[in-house]
Design the sequence.
């Protein structure tokens, strides 16, 4: 029987995902975040669980419902997400990084609500660590799948990101198409080249991503 036709083709495989945005605190009531519904990441978590994988989902703030059979860890900031991922990575076969992680955090967040006045408010932002690049750079990394959200030069920027972060697979999507929508259109970039998944519901795209990931994973870990 061909593997892809077996409904539980990921049985025994441990999959770790990040999804949704992160939120970086400015003060007691304000923060900086990214536009991310979490739908793509949650759909991939669901598709992996349907395929029989043991799935852990590290989720930033989102009202989405946890897919059946998925273990969920809620986080707020990028630093929380990094800590949760690092704790899980040693028991992970495949890491799929779908979260829209905030690239910067506020250097000195205020405990109290900052009062407004007529002046310009300056925030100091410092770069957050790249969670995916850290995991992919480990001596014995899990099989790493990255995402690239681009507003222009999708394939060129996507392939650059894949090489820079040393990823066997990267899913590139156009922010104008993907953001908040129920469907998506993506390119799979791997060592064999580019492969387009035409516009479809995010759950169908997610199932195709999981099939491709499982196939490549077996290629790398025969
Ligand atoms: N990522 C991450 N940790 C970060 C930033 C990004 O794990 N601090 C992951 C994302 O989950 C995604 C991939 O890296 O899988 C690419 O994210 P993206 O924002 O598209 O690219 P960046 O490398 O952050 O570059 P830029 O935002 O400048 O395009
Ligand atoms: Ca980024």
Sequence:
């Amino acid at each position: 029987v061909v593997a892809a036709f077996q409904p539980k083709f990921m049985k025994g495989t441990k999959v770790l995902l990040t999804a949704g945005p992160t939120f970086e605190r400015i003060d007691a009531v304000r923060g900086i975040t990214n536009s991310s519904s979490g739908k793509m990441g949650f759909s991939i978590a669901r598709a992996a669980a349907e395929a029989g994988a043991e799935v852990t989902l590290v989720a930033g703030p989102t009202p989405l419902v946890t897919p059946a059979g998925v273990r969920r860890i809620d986080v707020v900031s990028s630093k929380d997400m990094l800590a949760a991922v690092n704790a899980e990575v040693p028991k992970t076969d495949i890491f799929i990084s779908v979260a829209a992680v905030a690239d910067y955090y506020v250097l000195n967040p205020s405990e109290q609500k900052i009062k407004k006045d007529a002046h310009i408010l300056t925030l100091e932002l410092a770069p957050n660590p790249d969670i995916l690049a850290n995991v992919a750079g480990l001596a014995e990394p899990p099989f790493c799948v990255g995402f690239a959200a681009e507003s222009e030069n999708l394939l060129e920027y996507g392939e650059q990101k894949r090489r820079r972060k040393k990823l066997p697979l990267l899913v590139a999507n156009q922010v104008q198409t993907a953001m908040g929508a129920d469907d998506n259109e993506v390119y799979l970039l791997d060592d064999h080249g580019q492969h387009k998944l035409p516009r479809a519901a995010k759950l169908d795209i997610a199932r195709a991503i999981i099939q491709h990931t499982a196939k490549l994973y077996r290629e790398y870990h025969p």
